[in-house]
Tautomerase
Amino acid sequence: MPIVRVEMWEGRTLEQKRELVEVFTREMSRICGCTEAGIHIVIDEVKKENWAMGGQLCHEKFPDPPA
């Protein structure tokens, strides 16, 4: 039972996440020789204010474009 954990900034659409899990599942099954039914994928969405790179919070380093 492979488990794939994806951590990424929040903000992806449901369609983007759907495509991501479909592709990860298909390719994990192909590469590892396991059934797709046994593959688990967990997506953890993290706010940019809770993620830092190089000593700087990502919401400051990579601000969202104005709406």
About this structure: The chain has two helices and four strands.
